[in-house]
Amino acid sequence: MPFDATARLKAAIPFSIDDYLELVESIGRCLRPGKRGAKDFANPAIAARMVIDAPCAGPTNA
Predict the structure, then answer these.
(1) Phi then psi for 17, rounded to 5 degrees?
(2) Per DSSP, what are the bridge partners of residue 35?
(3) How far apart (Å, rounded) are the C-alpha atoms in residues 17 and 19?
(4) Distance from C-alpha of 18 to C-alpha of 46, rounded to nearest angstrom
(5) 6 against 43, higher pLDDT
(6) Which of 15, 32, 38, 62 shows the smallest number of beta carbons within 10 Å?
(7) Which residues contact 43 (CB under 8 A, 6 or more apart)?
(8) Where are the domains positioned within the chain?
(9) CA–CA distance, 27 with 58 (Å, rounded to integer)
(10) Which residues lie below 8 Å from residue 53, measured CB to CB, with a gap of 6+?
(11) Is the four-CA dihedral 48, 52, 18, 37 of positive or negative sign?
(12) Contact residues for 16 (Cβ-Cβ < 8 A; gap 6+)
């Protein structure tokens, strides 16, 4: 399925590939007990732009 941030295509993921990759990286860096190299953030910019809950929301950084 292609990425289409402009929403011109009916069968497309509704954001750009760059936004998707940033979201995946953000989720991978969420704080978890015992995890090294994690970021501490409650509402990353990508989540705000995509109007979704912060990917790291949860008891470990609430």
Answers:
(1) -60, -35
(2) none
(3) 5
(4) 10
(5) 6
(6) 62
(7) 54
(8) 1-62
(9) 12
(10) 47
(11) positive
(12) 3, 5
Q: Is the pTM of this model over 0.90?
A: no
The 3-state secondary structure of the chain reads CCECCCCCCCCCECCCHHHHHHHHHHHHCCCCCCCCCCCCCCCCHHHHHCCCCCCCCCCCCC
User: In this structure, which amino acid lies at residue 30?
Assistant: C
Report the length, in residues, of the chain.
Answer: 62
State the Cα–Cα distance between residues 43 and 51, nearest whole angstrom.
10
Residues 3-33: tens digit of each pLDDT: 666 666 677 777 778 888 887 877 777 766 6
Give phi and psi for 48, each to the nearest 5: -65, -40
